[in-house]
Design brief:
By secondary structure, the chain is of the alpha/beta class. It has ten helices and ten strands. The protein has one domain: Arginase, Chain A (3-Layer(aba) Sandwich), CATH 3.40.800. The structure holds zinc ion (ZN). The site of zinc ion has 7 residues, from loops.
Length: about 325
């Protein structure tokens, strides 16, 4: 089965303003590089449609969805009083990002593809139940988990978040839910402030949240040690039916927003571990969702390395 690349040029219509790091240029950097690489002829290209608002409401209440829509349509303004800027098209682009998620989950569970990388924006993992923040409007990974459960009767979903920032939104949405495991590696202390190792979930979800806070300056050795020596056992004991990756590439050594030293090759190695685990526990099903990554060349290179490892899963 194939590896899907899910992308629309309309993802560039979410205009965040001059000098904003979460820029439309991130899309062209990733896609131009993929199109010019040897992986391009091997991947299945998927052009998504917008998700219905009911899909967003699997995670966010209708009142929040309406509020985001109204603020976007009013013109450029920050959604959170900070740096989550939007334009009139941002709401429809966010629906299309969720549509990319839907296309990926549908493709995997209809067995048209084995795995996929969603080259989408705006990103999602900082989006809380009723708050859009950290460049994120709606929580794409959370929508993927809930859509897979709702549409395909999937019982357990594992979300592995290697974006350099902690995915506060995703953790909070599932921290009392035993059916969705949230695991994050991130720079700590750092934005958004959450993600201490003591945060392990609560109520029914106690034990299905796992944080690996890493000090600034960590690099390949720290990341690969966790991937090789800790994550396999955690994934195997949870035994998910689907693995989602919140794939931010801002832990890259060249990223301007963070202070980690992960190499392009390490992102490939990390993906290889996830591919192997998915093969062992969930028939290879991986939906990878782009989060951050702000050095355009590093983002493009790392995305290609990531896709190469996803492609190798077919063998
Ligand atoms: Zn990030």
């Amino acid at each position: 089965m194939a590896t899907g690349i899910i992308y629309s040029d309309r993802y560039m219509d979410h205009i965040t303003g001059f000098y904003h790091p979460e820029s439309p240029a991130r899309m062209s950097a990733v896609m131009d590089n993929l199109r010019n690489s040897t992986v391009w002829t091997s991947v299945q290209k998927i052009d998504p449609s917008s998700a219905e608002t009911e899909i967003i409401q699997l995670v966010h209440p209708e009142s929040h969805v309406s509020r985001v829509k109204d603020i976007c349509l009013s013109g450029i303004s920050p959604l959170d009083g900070g740096d989550t800027t939007v334009c009139a098209d941002s709401y429809s682009v966010a629906l299309l990002a969720a549509g990319g998620i839907v296309a990926g989950v549908d493709g995997i569970f209809s067995e048209e593809i084995l795995n996929a990388f969603c080259v989408i924006r705006p990103p999602g993992h900082h989006a809380e139940l009723t708050q859009s923040t950290g460049f994120c409007l709606f929580n794409n990974a959370a929508i993927a988990a809930r859509y897979a459960q709702h549409q395909y009767g999937v019982e357990k979903v594992f979300i592995l978040d290697w974006d350099v920032h902690h995915g506060n939104g995703t953790q909070h949405l599932f921290e009392d839910d035993a059916t969705v495991f949230y695991l994050s590696l991130h720079q700590f202390p750092f934005y958004p402030g959450t993600g201490d190792s003591s945060e392990k979930g609560h109520a029914d979800g106690l034990g299905t949240t796992c944080n690996f806070p890493l000090s600034a300056g960590s690099g390949d050795e720290s990341y690969l040690d966790i991937f090789e020596n800790s994550i396999p056992e955690i994934v195997a004991s949870f035994s998910p039916d689907l693995i989602l990756i919140s794939a931010g590439f801002d832990a890259h050594a060249r990223d301007p927003l963070a202070n980690m030293y992960v190499s392009t090759d390490a992102f490939r190695s990390m993906t290889e571990v996830v591919v192997r685990l998915a093969d062992e526990v969930c028939h290879g099903r991986i939906l990878s969702i782009l989060e951050g990554g702000y050095d355009l060349a590093a983002l493009a290179e790392s995305s290609e390395a990531h896709v190469r490892a996803l492609l190798a899963a077919r063998d």
